Amino acid sequence: MIALTGIGPVTPIGIGKDDFWNNIVTRYSCMSKVTRFPLSHGLYCGEISKVDLDEYIQDNRFRRAADISKYALAATFLAIDDAHSEKVANEDTALVLGITNGPLTYTQVFHSALIREGVDAISPSLFSESVLNAPASNISICFGIRGPVQTLVGGSTTALKAMILACQMLSTGIVDKAIVVSSEELNELSFFCYSRLGNTILSEGSGAVFIEKTSGLKEPSPYCHLLGMASHCNPSNPKDAFSSAVQQSLEMADLELKDIDFIMVDSSLPAVRKQYQNIIPSGCIIPLAGNAFSVTPMWHIILSSLSIKYGTIPTSIRTDTMKISDNIRHIMICSVEEKGVAAVVILSKCL
Amino acid sequence: MNRRVVVTGIGIITAHGIGKESNWTKIISGISSIRKITSFDSSKYRGKHGGEAKEFSTTFLHNLRNKRLDRASHLLIHTAREALSDACIIDGVKNIPILLSLGTTLGGMLSGEIFHREVIKKGLNKARLSLVSDYYAHCQAINLFQELELRGDFLVFSNACASGTNAVGHAFNSIRYGKYDMAICGGYDTISEFTFAGFNSLMAITTSLCRPFDKRRDGLILGEGAGILILEELEHALKRTTQICGEIVGYGESSDAYHITSPEPSGRMASIAIKKAWSDAGNPVIDYINAHGTGTKYNDIMETNAIKTAIGDSAREIPVSSTKPMIGHLLGGAGAVEAIISLLSINYKTLPPNINYDTPDPECALNIVTKAERHDIRTVLSNSFGFGGSNASIIIREYS
User: Fold this and answer.
1) Which of B40, B113, B146, B159 to mutate to test the interface with A (most CBs of A within 10 A)?
2) Which domains does chain B carry?
3) Predicted ipTM?
4) Which candidate in B74, B78, B161, B185 is catalytic?
5) pLDDT of residue A42
């Protein structure tokens, strides 16, 4: 069995589990006008105004890293610290990072310099920090993680797929523990593209969780267990992809749908929403924190872990008024993309 | 549950051409397909050459209506279709749950470059959004799902130059542990000016010839293309009475945790990836090593150290070659293409040559193959090492 033993949220709502939880409970709104790019766009987003990396990592090598890397480093530090794990600098720890956009700002700056000023104006360090696996590499270098270090790219489901891959590595004995991270940064080009497509409440940040086999666990007690998980792709029928992922994850967890106490869903697809509407209470963090693509489901995992531990779901993230069980045992985190990619992870209370 | 995993189909596009026959013929002839780059103006760069897949332009599409597919999608779809045809499953693939496991470093970067140029020239409001529809590195996988009407799931790895081997390794693990019976796996990347400029700024591109393990080596040559393998659980393949090209028997991975661009010089962590793969395969006799062999000063010394540390004294005797001087470094596609070349070397019992090698380097004291030669190859080790310290090794064996 696999347990979740540490969490590290870096969000516009709050950094660290206490700030994150307390600000959600008190309905703190982080939405404000974009300051990162020219105000002519005039749009609102969930922006992290400043992360002082020195607060978490005293290592000058990452001062010039892209924001996405800095968020990921801070989240990883928090998750490791929360899990009270001192031994990650080895070959038995895996790191799996899920991203959607990647270090786009450095990519844009590097390419702009190439186009506008020519070959002699480009910076090699910007290039190396703009590759898609730079955030994972920085985490690996910073914390000495020498096991498998994987970067998965994809849409909003990617953090859940990263979780599934990490669990696969644990269950097959490739590693003893794993850190699963997702991270995104706000970027002018992508922000503008998504805005033109109608996605206006965008966000940034990171989330990390520490998972390990229960057999090797000492203190502290885990937040929850990871009992079921699955992902599926069916571009011609997103609803079917979602149903298949739900069904497979329930089978893996040896549960039925009626056992699920709460669902966290990031999708606005009507076909998906209707499937469990008025059947299971549901919630979503996007109205509070904005949509940070692959990071959103990771925030859902972190929030659900806290909800299971504290035995309550904050009303601020509820998307319906259905009654919730007094004893929250199983929360299903779902992500569905418009192109028919779906992923599901079931978190369960440790009994 | 440990099941046997075999390769039943191959698809390959490189600067050498399209398909396994044309690629293999040129590889054992020691021909270089490195030419002056024509897809953008390379005259302003230190190095000006690359391995462009000039014989390939676009593929035909049955189901996708998108006219703005990136070249990366065309490469992937064409190669996957070729591999499925080779495995005699092109018509039946939609009825089998499929794992699509891919590696890429750039995705649709060519489209991203055009979009960004339009933004700079015309402004954000006038740049065509359709250009970014195939920019992200997972879009090509979804396009392949749509085009071939696949059902199942996909994962896209982006671990720099180790991505392709990671993708094959993940597919291997998923099949042997019973998650899937069949996988389409491999990697792809295009040559883009963005990447070329990046490697150029790092002074990693050679101004002359790519000469892996040679004392005069001074850098790599970029290439483009795709390599796709169809992996199947053995019984699943036998039930279809299809051809079996070889067997994947070991996979290992590790990370240097050292530097964002430089490999850890001693090769200690890379040796652990090799050891893990070798041990996973049951420590068989290795008949040939298809090296990562980029032709950069640091990689080749590191790889030599890693091979010697992992395999011991017998490492000096094992024939080693890198095929990158002929077709270039395919980045996310490299691991998969080199796995295919390794399979072909087993099938044709011939060692591929490491061309441009003429001055031995004492720091790279390996048994470098300079000319193609017949050899009883049964088991091959193929290495991939990437930016950020990603190490991945795979062991491929003759099927028996």
Assistant:
1) B159
2) 5-397 (3.40.47.10)
3) 0.97
4) B161
5) 61
